From TrEMBL:
Record's keyword terms, sorted: Membrane, Transmembrane, Transmembrane helix
Protein name: SLC26A/SulP transporter domain-containing protein
Organism, as annotated: Menopon gallinae
Location of the SLC26A/SulP transporter domain: 43-433
Localization annotation: Membrane
GO biological process: transmembrane transport
Residue intervals passing through the bilayer: 43-64, 84-106, 118-142, 195-212, 233-256, 300-322, 334-351, 371-392, 399-420, 440-463
Pfam families: Sulfate_transp
One of the record's GO cellular component terms: membrane
Topology of this chain in the membrane: Multi-pass membrane protein
InterPro entries, per the entry: SLC26A/SulP_dom (IPR011547), SLC26A/SulP_fam (IPR001902)
Length: 512
């Protein structure tokens, strides 16, 4: 909302009449600049946005935990701390920090077949790296990841997530998730064990979710007061579709369970109550062996650096999309994300970052400030305290349907088509190269391949710049006006000399 409380409070960080220490306080602790301007009408808007967001996060977080290879409670543990930290440190009112499909997939990639202590340490180390990136202003590193690479990476991860959830839709037991081809082969191998009841439920959930997604776009003609109320109801049902589908499926499963029948694979029991607040373990025992801190970090591998880089990229991109005028304090966002993950690791959270879908829900709910994160986080805590036992009855097929319907629209066919149509071979190579590498080699190697393609293209431009040569006439004769399209770098010396000598025939050879 233009001219809102967050936008008006932003002026305080730029007011030169204020002492330097106060401007720094407003910048690094944003709550101090917008909370004094808070009004009652802001509270109502943030309450509605927070509760709506909480209803969206509950089923999604449970599904993301399953995607990461974790039990359901860890998804819920990962949802509330981000909202609380962002309440104090966040700069963009729409951003919602919590578990995402991308973070869940990367978490699984780097911690599969390892106990949760490794995931918790990964969350802590990711937060430390993000914090250091913010302190030392290493945000420029994300500039080496171009939009086509991001689109290719996002599309590939979406395809991998969809294939990894086929086991849930088909009701298959003990099917390992992995890379794209591994997921396909594992499902084909177990196909004879398909459960008809789970398939039916999963397909029905997908159909209902896709239909409810379109519900908010229904045109009601000329707006009247009654139609406005109907429109708001349709919008709320559409936004809460994940919670509605999971709740209905849970009730169906509960009914069958009470009648001593279990036609669906269920999520399983989870501990009641809140997670303990404690430091992550820096040593652990696993497989008749004690792992020290360095050995645990070695097992996690490059995930300590790749997860923070991807999460910072996602968070800054979302912040830019929703900020006024596209201006974002990237350093503060990295610092905030780091604190979200560091403190999140104290409550058994998996790695988190901002999610575009949740941010869009906040925006459409009329959010005014980061106070909404306080309400959504509190709703999650209430759910953990009072409703944890009922998570047992949620069918796995419904969670798989929620995930598939969430990521299917993240496959960026449009970008690929536009690049092909525009004959933009350079960016198309980035997109297809990243996407193919992620599917064939894994998401972490695929991202590095995409960055390598970007850097190779930059090096080619430095070594082979385009030049324009014009003949300029003066009273004393003429001269050649030579203009390269970019700055000159030493790899281009021989190329430029040859090009100039080639385009100026019969003249004195050019020497570098």
């Amino acid at each position: 909302m233009e001219g809102g409380i967050m936008e008006n409070s932003l002026d305080k960080t730029k007011d030169k009449r204020l002492p330097v220490w106060r401007r720094k306080l407003y910048r690094h602790l944003p709550i101090t600049r917008w909370l004094p301007l808070y009004k009652k009408e802001d509270l109502l808007s943030d309450l509605i946005a927070g509760l709506t967001l909480g209803l969206t996060m509950v089923p999604q977080s449970i599904a993301y935990a399953a995607l990461a290879g974790l039990t359901s409670q860890y998804g819920l543990y990962s949802t509330f701390m981000g909202g609380y930290v962002y309440f104090f440190l966040g700069t963009i009112k729409e951003v919602s920090v919590g578990p995402t499909s991308l973070m869940a997939l990367l978490t699984f990639e780097f911690s599969k077949e390892l106990p949760f202590e490794f995931v918790c340490l990964l969350t802590f180390m990711s937060g430390c790296v993000e914090l250091l990136m913010g302190i030392f202003q290493f945000g420029f590193l994300v500039d080496f990841i171009s939009a086509p690479v991001i689109s290719g990476f996002q599309s590939a991860t979406s395809v991998i997530i969809i294939t990894s959830q086929l086991k849930g839709i088909l009701g298959l037991r003990k099917v390992k998730s992995g890379r794209f081809l591994e997921n396909i082969m594992n499902v084909i191998y177990k196909l004879p064990e398909t459960r008809f009841s789970d398939v039916t439920l999963g397909i029905c959930c997908c159909i209902v979710l896709l239909l409810l997604r379109r519900l908010k776009d229904i045109k009601l003609g000329k707006m009247t007061e009654k139609k406005m109320k109907i429109k708001k109801c349709l919008w709320f049902v559409s936004i809460s579709r994940n919670a509605i589908v999971v709740l209905v499926c849970g009730c169906i499963a509960y009914y069958f369970h009470e009648n001593e029948s279990t036609p669906f694979l269920l999520s399983g029991k989870i501990p009641e109550g809140l997670p303990p607040f404690r430091l992550p373990r820096f040593s652990t025992e696993f497989g008749n062996r004690t792992y020290s801190f360095t050995e645990m970090c070695y097992e996690i591998g490059s995930g300590i650096f790749i997860l923070p880089l991807v999460s910072v990229l996602a968070n800054v991109t979302i912040a830019k999309a929703f900020s006024t005028g596209g201006s974002v304090d990237a350093t503060q966002e990295m610092f905030t994300l780091g604190m979200c993950n560091i403190l999140g690791s104290f409550v058994s959270s998996m790695p988190t970052c901002g999610a575009f879908t949740r941010s869009a829900v906040s925006n459409s709910s009329g959010v005014r400030t980061p106070m909404s994160g306080l309400f959504s986080g509190s709703l999650i805590l209430i759910f953990l305290v009072f409703f944890s036992p009922y998570l047992y009855y949620i069918p796995r097929a419904s969670l798989s349907a929620v995930l598939i319907c969430a990521v299917i629209f993240m496959i960026d066919w449009k970008t690929c088509f536009l690049l092909w149509k525009a004959n933009n071979k350079r960016d198309l190579v980035c997109f297809l190269g990243t996407c193919t590498a992620c599917l064939a080699l894994g998401v972490e190697i695929g991202l590095l391949v995409g960055v390598a393609i970007n850097i190779a293209q930059l090096m080619y431009l430095w070594a082979r710049p385009s030049i324009s040569i014009e003949v300029k006439e003066t009273k004393g004769g003429f001269y050649y006006y030579i203009k390269p399209d970019i700055g000159l770098f030493f790899p281009a010396v021989d190329f430029l000399r040859n090009e100039i000598n080639k385009k100026c025939p019969g003249e004195i050879p050019f020497r570098a």
